[in-house]
Amino acid sequence: MILIKKYINNVIFILIFFSIKNLYSQEIKVQIFDQNNIPLPYTNILNLNNNLGTISNENGYFNLDSNQHHEDDTIKFLHIGFKTYKITFNELKNIKNIILEENIINLSEIFIFQSEPKPLEIIQKILYNAEKNYKTKPIKQKVFIRNRNKGKTKKFNIDYKKSSINELGENFFDKIVKKVPEKWLDYSDILTEVYEANVGGDSVELKINPIRVVELNDESLNGIEDLQKIFNEKLNSIDSTEYWKFKSGIFGVKIPKPEIKNLKDDEIKVKDYSNLVKWKIKKIKLSNKKTWDFLYKPKNYQFSLIGGTKINNEDVYIIDFEALKKGKYNGRIYVSIKNYAIVKADFYMPEDKINKFNLLGVFMSTNEKIISIYFEKLDSFYSLKYFTETQSYNFGIKRPISLIKKKENGLFDKKIDEIKVNINADFESSNSYEYFVQNIKPIKKSEFKSLIQKKTFKKINVDQFNKKLWKGFSIIEPTDYMNNYKKKSGNLKN
């Protein structure tokens, strides 16, 4: 009897313990606004007591796990061009919104200049001091990266003509049309260590060591995976004298034999991720004339020095720029008064600069392009803190398409198989890339050289965003669309 009572008491204690733990293990979700009630994206949030930090998402939302913070911890909010805001974690738990106050200062009120600073002279000094300000030392960073693509099908029709391949007949293409989703979402979230070293000039060598990779891939919705398997089987079942040719109208091109990937469904190729990160890092370097068009071609822009502000106790100029006839972007940059480093840049492609392409039934237009870059000062140089880029497109095709299998036969190659359809498709797509550096520290060249990058890494495939997978990690808060989106099952055999 005593043993039974003791057992019951232990069970009750365990239940109470976990109830209390769950009660206090809650997430604090808050949205940040400016004084005009406009959400402030990519605001830096930092716990001054333990240096744990995060960043608000594109809609100004962020969350903090109560397990990682104490009630009397001070939480700091930093958004360039706005006054720094501080609040205790206990106070933060009881509010839903935070409003930051704009902090633009009239330079003449706090600085004495021999002559009024001229924006074009500041632009020239940015480039002159770039190598010194952004000189890359060997560093190790902990980085969260989100690569997201969401799309919408506006139109998708396949007019079947003929096929000599039974598996790819009219019924097959009808099923594809039915499986094409109205909306789709693909994304990869990766938390990784990034090792970076300068290898001469502007060249950077980069290695990554993934910590966690989570992916949602909606390709199966439209039957692409099934189609790809069949095509790959057909494309690979050729001898040295055979080849496939893609043809549309009078245009034709040989199709290279597809690369055979020996990856499992739950694996990624680390080198692919590393190359993408390297390409993105190279893109935002000040030596990239395409990204920093307004620095290298200032005559194509109208610049205005609108005032100054403080960023981490550093005085900065605030310069707005607007594209003239040959310019590409409108935006704002924040430039250190002391050393002429760009601390932050926000710019976008105005509507009248949108790139459009329409030729022979193939069209594509860029509807939106927004870039935000923030460099954080570390000792004597500036290092990337975060980088975001969003692009939206319209693209489509209205043309006859043929896939032809041929065998080399002297002057006139012999046709073996042919698939012929007319495609009429119109899609909308929005791609976003977010790169958030959580911490950074200098390392020795020997540490960089000794790191051996893995060939593959296990990833977690999901059908819906799952916060539990990121418990204990700091990530960018997902948008409501990501939170609510659930992948549907899709199979061509159904």
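[next item in queue]
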Amino acid sequence: MTVPHAEALSPAGRLLLDRRRFLANSTTVLGSIALTSLLDRDRLLAASYPGPVIDPAKPYASRQPHFPAKAKNVVVIFCAGAVSQLETWDYKPELIKWDDKPLPGGPSVTFQGPAGNLARPQYEFRQRGRTGKWVSDMIPHLAELTDDFAFVHSLTSKSNTHGPAENFLSTGFVLDGFPSLGSWATYALGSESQDLPSYVAIPDPRGVPQNGSNNWGPGFLPAAFQGTTMSSKDPVRHLSAPGVPGKQDEAARSLLQKMNARHLEANPGDSKLAARIASYELAARMQLSVPEINDLSTEPAHLLKLYGADDTQNPEKAAFAKNCILARRLIEKGVRFVQLFNGAYASGGKLNWDGHSALKEQYDVHAQILDQPAAALISDLKQRGLLDDTLVVWCTEFGRMPFFQKGAKGRDHNPDGFTCWMTGAGVKPGVSHGETDPLGQKAVKDIHPLYDFNATILHLLGMDHERLTFEHNGFERRLTNVEGHVIREILS
């Protein structure tokens, strides 16, 4: 067959004019198309997924998840300072046998200095509930609830330093500037409440954690999705105009709302203006909602007692208990994500769980503050039926070594194997997943970086962690970076 001007074609073009070669090449192309389709179906191709569609004028509006969610709300109990898994959830009888002996082949120096001998758990362990789970006497109230928990004993972190490790747990990156888990969740889903922030961070009564607002910051996401800090002790500041009578303030806000609406009509398509007005209007609504939700005087005496909020002998415990009650009230009002901190900044272990030198002495204090209030929060949510669609997460940034530091009675940092747990909506109760070695130093079975833990939380909220993205500086960023797998073994 002669084709006019065939000489003007490229060599590849001329090859296509050969019938046999054309058919052979067509078969290859069709096969490639089919392969591409299969790879895309099985999520094996790199892909770009659009983020949620957000109306700038209504950034907190409720949005649909990727798939039906098991959980509508999340409460994260974040124990800052790195709680020792060996004194709480990860029972190691071998460590008792090896007490005060050197670790064979162990490191001579760890994060904060020379390593000493192996040290047995500083609290007795006993079996609890129907599952017979071994849990420490340090936390007797939480121990009674372990039949409801799903433990992951084989978590790992990318840092052994508190600040970067807090970042990694909260944002998926050790560096500053990335969005927190709560910001990702509220960016994706908005809020069920239009009178309160979609995301609330409740600092410990003793202070903020080591990395402060990075733990609840929006990073490069729109600022509307950062966590709003409040506590039972310190409600949101500057909510009301000082010295302005209520009716006058209300009239002024009504006039301002009308003026904002006219200004927005005159500037259609100005998303920044719409977002700013939405923020101001939420603040105005919070003037009424926040004082009400912070007023714990309406709580009955028996409930205050359940949480330990009436403990006059331990004011720090009472203050944390009130924060736990506040967390429950926020969930009741439809707040999507509540981050509840237990432990403050680095202080030689006096204000958080950083037990380097006097672990037992310090943990006696911290456990009293944490145990009863946190257990009461879970029990209260369950009794009210709120645990059916609320996920409760207990976490810490890394674990502790099985040996004491030389010349001290405390344990050094350990990012290679530690424990966190979940309970509530979508979680299989009474499960212990993953293992550390017999002495509790390293994860050895079903190892999960914290990416997996965060991916699982998003999954329970109905979100595919690989599809929840935001373009920033030319990259499709996500909470789990380019990693992460859902821990399906702990899901119901």
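[queue empty]
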